[in-house]
């Protein structure tokens, strides 16, 4: 095997070691999350970058994920559901922290927070898994990106 192939083969194990961080003392938040399915939203996941937590609507400020509620194409909806489901799983893995950086709220009144566990952003995990992108200050053309990836 070449060095390049060895590095690629080792990548999943390195990522697992990097992102499977235990909770720290700062990780004091905990709840059981599920996808939001009703109008009464207390603690649930709307999509890959928006959650309700204890009655507060929170936008993960460090990432952007495909839309579920108004996708521009079927591929965006599919990737959006995958991002939502993965975020549900990540949030349910244990305690986490909510970190404010920059503005406290967005123009829609959502709290802007980075969700971390063991100092690692859960959003960064979604980016690494191809389910999100780093926040660029605007929404992206997911349909175009996903079509190019095929």
Automatic annotation (TrEMBL):
Signal sequence bounds: 1-25
Database matches in InterPro entries: SNase_OB-fold_sf, Staphylococal_nuclease_OB-fold
Record keywords: Signal
Annotated ranges, domain TNase-like: 36-132
Name of the featured protein: Thermonuclease family protein
Organism: Alteraurantiacibacter palmitatis
Lineage: Bacteria, Pseudomonadati, Pseudomonadota, Alphaproteobacteria, Sphingomonadales
